[in-house]
Amino acid sequence: MIKNYNQEVKKLDKDSVIPIYYQLAKIFEKQILQGRLTPGEALPSENEISEKYDISRMTVRRAISELTNAGMVYTQKGKGTFVAKPKLEDVIFELKNFHEEIRKRGMQPRTKLLGVKIVRADKLLAKKLNVPLNTNCLYYRLLLSTQEEPLVYENKYVVYTKQKPILESELNDPSLSNLATLHGEKFPTMSKRILHASVATEEETVVLGIELNEPVFVVEQTLYDADKNPVGWGKSVCRGDRFKFTSTISWSMDNTTGD
Amino acid sequence: MIKNYNQEVKKLDKDSVIPIYYQLAKIFEKQILQGRLTPGEALPSENEISEKYDISRMTVRRAISELTNAGMVYTQKGKGTFVAKPKLEDVIFELKNFHEEIRKRGMQPRTKLLGVKIVRADKLLAKKLNVPLNTNCLYYRLLLSTQEEPLVYENKYVVYTKQKPILESELNDPSLSNLATLHGEKFPTMSKRILHASVATEEETVVLGIELNEPVFVVEQTLYDADKNPVGWGKSVCRGDRFKFTSTISWSMDNTTGD
DNA sequence: GAGTGGTCTAGACCACACA
DNA sequence: GTGTGGTCTAGACCACTCT
Question: What domain of life does the UniProt record list for this protein's source (chains A, B) (predicted)?
């Protein structure tokens, strides 16, 4: 508590395997987290820092860049670098690969193909995929489960332009982007998703083995190519009693988001 | 289609107001999106690029850094820089400030304080906030609405160490992190949230004006200070018929996530 | 050993903010 | 004007990969 009252210069180990810019960023991070630099307050200028620690200005900039990426400081041209306010009210819910997540929890993920066929686009699908009515599309119905119980019921459609046969091996990665890559002409480069809270329909209760009106997450996904044309569309229904999304926002350099 | 077979060098405008590193990054982005550089393929080495375009290697590195941040390429020490595979299966659902979102949609957000009082921590709350039983805590009940209808019902608790009076002005920003900052000793620096799909309880149907068993999103939030001690806990119940989360993942330099 | 990306330097010029 | 951050250069040394 009584140390450092003389704004003593923290030491940088220039021979360390740890980069100088990282050591410097950590020094400022510590000062910010300890409240010795408070939100709105200015950091020393880049020239001051580079003289004080006897390092190049470019190295100072790299350190500040790390802090900027972490959202801890922001820069203003011609004015200076300032400590940011924590933005803990922002939320980011991440959803990662189903198989990995299940395996991480010590269970065995399974993918069951309930059906796959070529269908002609009806009005809804034609609109979702921006194709003419009755265009040939591939339709997949999948059930993702652990060894114990079903978890996700998926319906996916992709534009079917290559007329390639449907391979068993597709089930190794039945993600919409993989299916679209295999059977479409173009590369998917953008994915839009919408997450709804809903209750299970009759069909979903049967497939998922839950009661009518049980809560579920519904994730609708649309894939686009580089020209912004839809190349795939799908709907995943996740059991509400087995799924939750977690979000960690941390005001520090490590762990931008976790789990 | 027939152009550029002579690997003609794209021009960089060195006198432009647009930074060279950005122009260069855009050139590679275009080549990748057009499929002239495919996933797994190597970019020219940094030295080659710097000679080819007659710019410094540090500028080349800055350009590649932009592409790396966008997830379009990855680097391997001693080997080279390679085009990444699009990871469109990752999902990021963002939830932004309630008031801004409502206003953006052309409605007027309202916050109604249903109640605020000092309570003694029961078993559940003592566990959530990691304090002894019966510790004094502040308890807020809030209703967020448009002019037309209620949307979110919130219950929030913060550790009450400062013994500061409760101010009307807190309602300008009744976020958990603001309440915790005002009434706690320490700075919140980390926020964890859990998103559940559920159905409305009896109390929630009354407050939100919906039917029993209507789907709702439940967002549970815990705030921590720099020492990882909980300083606030809250639960927000959002009408399922009025809320959806959207996610856009784009394999390009702009729009890392949108809306 | 040759080639690669990672780090770092000691300069330079610029546009911007502020007095 | 002075001071700030933003860009850029032309070198340098390192650890790493591959042959």
Answer: Bacteria
d(CA B163, CA B177): 17
Residue nearest to nucleotide D7 (CA to C1'): B19
Domain of A68, in residue numbers: 20-83
Chain A, 216 to 235: residues with Cβ < 8 Å from chain B are: 216-217, 219, 223, 226
Based on the fold, state whether residues B105 and B66 are members of the same structural domain: no
Average pLDDT value for chain B = 87
Instruction: Chain B: give the shortest CA distance to residue A88, in Å.
Output: 6
What is the tens place of the pLDDT at every residue in A170-194?
777 788 888 888 888 888 888 999 9
- Closest-CA distance of chain A to residue B201, Å: 12
Rounded to 5 degrees, φ, ψ at B28 are -70, -40
Q: Which chain B residues are within 8 Å of A90, Cβ to Cβ?
A: 94-96
**CA–CA dist B109, B103 (Å, integer):** 7
Identify whether residues B74 and B106 lie together within a single domain.
Answer: no
Same domain, B193 and B154: yes
All residues of chain B having their beta carbon less than 8 Å from the beta carbon of residue A142 are none
Cross-chain Cβ contact B223/A88 below 8 Å? yes
CATH number at residue A124: 3.40.1410.10
- Residue A188 shares a structural domain with residue A64: no
Least Cα distance to B251 among B25, B95, B80, B29 occurs for B29
CA of A78: nearest nucleotide by C1' is D4
Residue A6 has pLDDT above 90, yes or no: no
Q: Which residues contact A137 (CB under 8 A, 6 or more apart)?
A: A118, A119, A120, A121, A125, A129, A131, A157, A158, A159, A160
The reply to whether B118 and B232 lie within a common domain is yes
Chain B positions touching A226 (Cβ under 8 A) are 33-34
User: Do residues A234 and B89 touch, judged by C-beta distance below 8 A?
Assistant: no
Q: Give the model's confidence band at B8: pLDDT under 50 very low, under 70 low, under 90 confident, else very high.
A: low
Residues A129 and A227 occupy one common structural domain: yes
Q: What is the pLDDT of residues B181-228, one digit of tens each?
A: 888 888 888 899 999 999 999 999 999 999 888 999 999 999 999 889
Tell me how many domains chain B contains. Answer: 2
Q: Is residue B64 part of a domain?
A: yes
- Angstroms from A177 CA to nearest CA on chain B: 7
Q: How does pLDDT run across B91-143, given as a tens digit for each residue?
A: 777 777 777 788 888 888 888 889 888 999 999 999 999 999 999 999 999 99
Give the CATH number for residue B44. Answer: 1.10.10.10
Are the beta carbons of A246 and B91 separated by less than 8 Å? no
Task: Supply the pTM of this predicted model.
Answer: 0.81
Question: B68 lies in a domain?
Answer: yes
Q: Residue A68: left (phi > 0), alpha (psi -120 to 50), or beta?
A: alpha
